[in-house]
């Protein structure tokens, strides 16, 4: 059950989080610039970001996509809502909402992303996986995910289950 497929999914999910092109106005930094400011790598958000809000005091943010996004990888489904929110600080995104991975019969939220040196850890509560930062130089696109970008190699993570049981979130 813990498999490279899951790694792959988690990797993509994270990839959808840092993105490329989105500025709310001429004077605001883009989402991409913002993520860099918090020490996250390029390539965490999909194309189609239309804007974001950030409270720079608390780190609470909301990112808006122009449409929901889902695709299948190795038999697993990923789903991105049009609104993704969380709390960001240097090297850490917590209380993440809006990105889900389907494991068996359950849609599970990716709840936390942590960067430690060259490693990114994604947590879905029941499990987490580590990836090297250089897996995140490119952003997948809705519809084709990984494959649009010539299959970025993101299977370098270790995968381990936490002790909690599966939790369904929708
Ligand atoms: C969403 O954004 C993408 C990338 O900018 C664009 O290609 C697509 O047409 C947009 N879709 C809608 C429904 O606006
Ligand atoms: C940020 O959050 C703090 C605490 O909730 C609040 O007092 C402040 O007004 C917020 N700032 C903005 C720009 O929304």
UniProtKB/TrEMBL annotation:
InterPro entries: At5g01610-like, DUF538. The keyword Signal applies. Residues 1-22 form the signal peptide. Keywords: Signal. This is DUF538 family protein.
């Amino acid at each position: 059950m813990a498999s490279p497929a899951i790694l792959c999914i988690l990797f993509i999910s994270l990839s959808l989080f840092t993105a490329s092109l989105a500025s709310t106005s001429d004077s605001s930094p883009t989402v991409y610039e913002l993520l860099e400011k918090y020490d996250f790598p390029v390539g965490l958000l999909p194309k189609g970001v239309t804007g974001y809000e950030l409270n720079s005091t608390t780190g609470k943010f909301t990112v808006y996509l122009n449409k929901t996004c889902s695709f299948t990888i190795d038999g697993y489904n990923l789903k991105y809502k049009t609104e993704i929110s969380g709390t960001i600080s240097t090297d850490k995104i917590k209380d993440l909402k809006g990105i889900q991975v389907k494991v068996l019969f359950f849609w599970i939220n990716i709840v936390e992303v942590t960067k430690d040196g060259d490693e990114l850890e994604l947590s879905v509560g029941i499990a987490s996986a580590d990836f090297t930062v250089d897996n995140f130089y490119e952003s997948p696109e809705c519809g084709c995910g990984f494959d649009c970008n010539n299959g970025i190699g993101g299977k370098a993570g270790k995968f381990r289950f936490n002790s909690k049981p599966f939790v369904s979130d929708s």
